[in-house]
Amino acid sequence: MNQGDTILQFQNVSRLYHQGGETIRALDGVDLTLRRGEFVAIAGPSGSGKTTLLNVSVGLDQPTEGKVWVGGQDLTGMSAPELAQLRLNKVGFIFQSYNLVPVLSAEENAELILLLRGVPAAERKRTVHQVLKEVGLEGLEHRRPSELSGGQQQRVAVARAIVAEPALVLADEPTANLDSKTAFALIDLMEKLNQEHDTTFLFSTHDPRVMKRAKRIIYLLDGRVEKDVSSP
Prior knowledge:
This protein is an alpha/beta fold and about 230 residues long. Helices cover about 35% and strands about 30% of the residues. Helix 5 (about 120-135) crosses helix 6 (about 150-160).
């Protein structure tokens, strides 16, 4: 299969759960291709399969049927350590609950991925300072999450997601806990990173502010792709 600049590909992917004697199709025969530099929103009502799609994208959850490729690598049959290595090297994550380590500073939270990759200390510091500056946190490097606002914490989470220049960034409802002003600032930031670094963003959202800025919206309903709409 010639992947070219394909970052993520689903081929007839289904994810079934068994609950109380009932079978639930969280994903149902999804075909999907994302290319480098896309800025894509997954939209749909609660229970439509948005979070499951993100989880299956990087092996946090396994498809019951079908295949998934990330950066040309087939996730089928990968071991847990192999999947962890793929996520470490190719994917960044932004969570609505930030998922920062409370006892670490902004700088220390942002450098975790580089630390896990074995990047030397001097290079880590240099890279992290540059990225924190880029996300508007210069001067706040040594503050812990409890000393930062919600918007600032989310910016640390963005810095951590992009510091190692992943090919793909996944964001699960990234503006859900933010006020309008902070949400717009975060969308501006993600759009800037997408344009300047050619990073592919895939984010689930209910937020019309985010959907309006997406270059492509994939609408899910009952685990199926109902519509796939690109901006002109």
